[in-house]
Amino acid sequence: MVRLCVICNKERAIVKRPKTGQQVCKGCFYYVFETEIHNTIIDSKLFKKDEKVAIAASGGKDSTVLAHVMKLLNERYQYGLELFLLSIDEGITGYRDDSLETVKRNQQQYDLPLKIVSYSELYGWSMDQIVKEVGLKNNCTFCGVFRRQALDRGAVMLDVDHIITGHNADDIAETVLMNILRGDVGRLQRCTEICTTGDGCIRRSKPFKYTYEKEIVMYAYFKKLDYFSTECIYSPNSYRGHARTFLKDLEAIRPSAIIDIIHSGEAFEIKKEVKLPTQGVCKRCGYMSSNELCKACVLLEGLNRGLPK
Amino acid sequence: MSSLKVKLSFSGGVELLFDNIKQKSIEISSSINPPNPTTMKDLILWMKDNLLKERPELFMSGDTVRPGILVLINDSDWELEGELEYEIEDGDDIVFISTLHGG
């Protein structure tokens, strides 16, 4: 029994979209996938014409598909953007060096300029060195904090004030769950925003905000896009892993749960009386911070003094 | 009783559970649980017993594949083919892709 695509009614359906439950053929799948991202970009007014935009690229599935789709949409709809690839080398042997090779191939394939910034050059510490110093707990905290700053610094070096990342719907739903589980009201407010302003007015957007991870992987598979896929060797004990397992179980029961959690996150309102941290700048390095010293400086101080955290 | 030739492909990290092999051709009985024809459910259990080198909980969850692992049968989403109930045919091409890694 041949199932026909519900959109064109001509070709054989090869994907069941988790977002809508529709069964679609290859051509229609490409079209709806790309067009929905285009609509997200337009509805959220993410870009201005002639803007310089850095695509945060790790060589993984999301950033590779992001680079591919952004180049495609930029040409198809004439966004007029100047695109760059920006990559961070955290110094994780056997993980990051391999994925950076993928980014270098992406640079050739998509013909985009590439900039690589490393933790070693920025902070004097690679992740391998950090893990040796602090052990296997809280590594993700160091890495996440340092990477955020590293991307902003890399953008400045490229003279770019807009970074886009490949965070997808699954990632954002996981973050919403994590923030609820940890009672982090401040982050809960910000984490569903599609565009946030960082240090020195560097904006950060997530065009894949409503794009399901399953669809990104299917798209990459059918389009035969080259990406690197291994779990970071330091991640198995991460908090996010638990949220991810829970989310995947929810998706198996009701696929719309992912988008629903994002909508719930967007709908949260904090009571007026609740005190939220205010944003200032770090006394030491000038990066944005809600405390006297930014988290990266606090972590670095701990590292350099030889104390964990 | 005849046998079925099936080609298995692994990517996205799944290959690590199968001795780092990305593709493997196998031959299985057309009726692993007689008198019923071999289904995906039978195949997956067969893979667990005969091919899986380590950490079965990273490939399977109960009777089915772990949530987060996508399955394609002849380049088509297994959700459209009946998932576990799909009856394997000779020459089938089955792909397992994990989505559970950084992007």
UniProtKB/TrEMBL annotation, chain A:
Annotated binding of ATP, by residue: A56, A57, S58, D62, I88, G166, D171
Enzyme Commission designation: 2.7.7.-
Keywords assigned: ATP-binding, Cytoplasm, Nucleotide-binding, RNA-binding, Transferase, tRNA processing, tRNA-binding
ATP-binding among keywords: yes
Pfam families (UniProt xref): ATP_bind_3 (PF01171), zn-ribbon_14 (PF16503)
Xref: SUPFAM superfamilies: Adenine nucleotide alpha hydrolases-like (SSF52402)
Family matches, as Gene3D superfamilies: HUPs
Domain of life, source organism: Eukaryota
GO cellular component: cytosolic tRNA wobble base thiouridylase complex; mitochondrion
Domain tRNA(Ile)-lysidine/2-thiocytidine synthase N-terminal as annotated: residue spans: 52-231
PROSITE patterns from the UniProt entry: UPF0021
Cell division is among the record's keywords: no
GO molecular function: ATP binding; nucleotidyltransferase activity; tRNA binding
InterPro entries assigned: CTU1-like_ATP-bd (IPR056369), CTU1_C (IPR032442), Ncs6/Tuc1/Ctu1 (IPR000541), Rossmann-like_a/b/a_fold (IPR014729), TilS/TtcA_N (IPR011063), tRNA_thiolation_TtcA_Ctu1 (IPR035107), UPF0021_CS (IPR020554)
Pathway linked to the protein: tRNA modification; 5-methoxycarbonylmethyl-2-thiouridine-tRNA biosynthesis
Cytoplasmic tRNA 2-thiolation protein 1 C-terminal domain boundaries: 281-309
GO biological process: protein urmylation; tRNA wobble position uridine thiolation
Localisation: Cytoplasm
Role, per record: Plays a central role in 2-thiolation of mcm(5)S(2)U at tRNA wobble positions of tRNA(Lys), tRNA(Glu) and tRNA(Gln). Directly binds tRNAs and probably acts by catalyzing adenylation of tRNAs, an intermediate required for 2-thiolation. It is unclear whether it acts as a sulfurtransferase that transfers sulfur from thiocarboxylated URM1 onto the uridine of tRNAs at wobble position. Prior mcm(5) tRNA modification by the elongator complex is required for 2-thiolation. May also be involved in protein urmylation.
Similarity comment text for this entry: Belongs to the TtcA family. CTU1/NCS6/ATPBD3 subfamily.
PANTHER family listed in its UniProt record: ATPASES OF THE PP SUPERFAMILY-RELATED, CYTOPLASMIC TRNA 2-THIOLATION PROTEIN 1
Name listed for the protein in its UniProt record: Cytoplasmic tRNA 2-thiolation protein 1
Gene: NCS6
Automatic annotation (TrEMBL), chain B:
PTM summary: C-terminal thiocarboxylation occurs in 2 steps, it is first acyl-adenylated (-COAMP) via the hesA/moeB/thiF part of UBA4, then thiocarboxylated (-COSH) via the rhodanese domain of UBA4.
Pathway assigned to this chain's UniProt record: tRNA modification; 5-methoxycarbonylmethyl-2-thiouridine-tRNA biosynthesis
SUPFAM superfamilies (UniProt xref): MoaD/ThiS
Record-listed 1-thioglycine modification sites: G103
Any one Pfam family match given in the protein's UniProt record, by short name: Urm1
Keyword tRNA processing applies: yes
Domain of life of the native organism: Eukaryota
Family annotation (InterPro entries): Beta-grasp_dom_sf, Mopterin_synth/thiamin_S_b, Urm1
GO biological process: protein urmylation; tRNA thio-modification; tRNA wobble uridine modification
Keywords: Cytoplasm, Isopeptide bond, tRNA processing, Ubl conjugation pathway
Sequence position, cross-link Glycyl lysine isopeptide (Gly-Lys) (interchain with K-? in acceptor proteins): G103
Localization per record: Cytoplasm
GO cellular component, one term: cytosol
Protein biosynthesis among keywords: no
HAMAP family: Urm1
UniProt xrefs under PANTHER family: RURM1 PROTEIN (PTHR14986)
Functional note: Acts as a sulfur carrier required for 2-thiolation of mcm(5)S(2)U at tRNA wobble positions of cytosolic tRNA(Lys), tRNA(Glu) and tRNA(Gln). Serves as sulfur donor in tRNA 2-thiolation reaction by being thiocarboxylated (-COSH) at its C-terminus by the MOCS3 homolog UBA4. The sulfur is then transferred to tRNA to form 2-thiolation of mcm(5)S(2)U. Prior mcm(5) tRNA modification by the elongator complex is required for 2-thiolation. Also acts as a ubiquitin-like protein (UBL) that is covalently conjugated via an isopeptide bond to lysine residues of target proteins such as AHP1.
Family stated for the protein in its record: Belongs to the URM1 family.
Protein name, per record: Ubiquitin-related modifier 1
